Amino acid sequence: MVWDPNWLERPIALIGLSGCGKSTLARLLARALSWPWYDTDAAVAAAAGMSVADLFQTYGEAEFRARESAALCEALREAQVIATGGGIVLQPENRQMLHDRATVIWLDASDATILARLAVDAEERPLLRGDAATRLAALRAARAPLYAALADLTVQTDGVTPIELVQQIITALRKGKEERAG
Ligand SMILES: Nc1ncnc2c1ncn2[C@@H]1O[C@H](COP(=O)(O)OP(=O)(O)OP(=O)(O)O)[C@@H](O)[C@H]1O
Ligand SMILES: O=C(O)C1=C[C@@H](O)[C@@H](O)[C@H](O)C1
Ligand SMILES: [Mg+2]
Fold first, then answer.
1. What pLDDT shows up at residue 2?
2. Which residues, at least 6 apart from 143, have a Cβ–Cβ distance to it below 8 Å?
3. Which of 2, 19, 78, 179 counts the highest number of beta carbons within 10 A?
């Protein structure tokens, strides 16, 4: 598919629960668009010199959220694909920034899919430690309405490969652009 990245005016932000594939998709989508990519979790971890899990343990969630908001603000300065953290929508200022400055794509997946995907590196997700299924259900209940309200586009990822998802997203963005152009 021929793709003109100049059609896209705004950064693209991927939102959704842990394990829905934001980090994986951000790299692939960026490559397909010849855009840079940015991962707020990776940026916060790199700046702190420790993993997100260790940052939670050492400084607490509130400090992580403050650093995450700063990373999002930085990321939105550039036309790039941004993988956000699963909890990015919790802060009202983050929701405002995403609404004002990004094309927002919600990557969704069933609980079963997410639990299977995260089984290998569950320890890296501090909010899913312990009874992951119960915790995931609670995170979904609290966050799904926030993801839904922000999303310009919602993509179901169950049983769909990352490469197929990139194609779906590009097709949907192109269609949206054409519809806006009338
Ligand atoms: N469409 C997909 N099909 C199968 N496996 C996938 C898919 N997308 C991602 N995965 C796998 O699921 C796991 C979690 O993906 P990823 O780290 O991209 O999620 P995330 O949304 O960034 O999570 P977090 O919010 O915790 O950073 C990885 O092992 C990845 O390879
Ligand atoms: O769902 C969440 O709140 C989180 C998801 C991850 O991306 C990390 O941002 C961190 O583990 C918190
Ligand atoms: Mg990620």
1. 40
2. 17, 86, 87, 89, 90
3. 19
All domains in the chain, ordered by first residue: 8-181 (3.40.50.300)
Tokens of 71: 């990373």
DSSP letters, 39-93, are EHHHHHHHHHTS-HHHHHHHH-HHHHHHHHHHHHHHHTTSSSEEEPPTTGGGSHH
Regarding the beta carbon of 85 and ligand 2, being less than 6 Å apart is answered yes
Least confident of 5-9, 56-60, 72-76, 170-174: 5-9
SS3 label, residue 137: helix
Q: Which ligand 2 atom sits closest to the C-alpha of 124?
A: 11
pLDDT band at 19 (very low <50, low <70, confident <90, very high): very high
123 in helix, strand or coil? Answer: helix
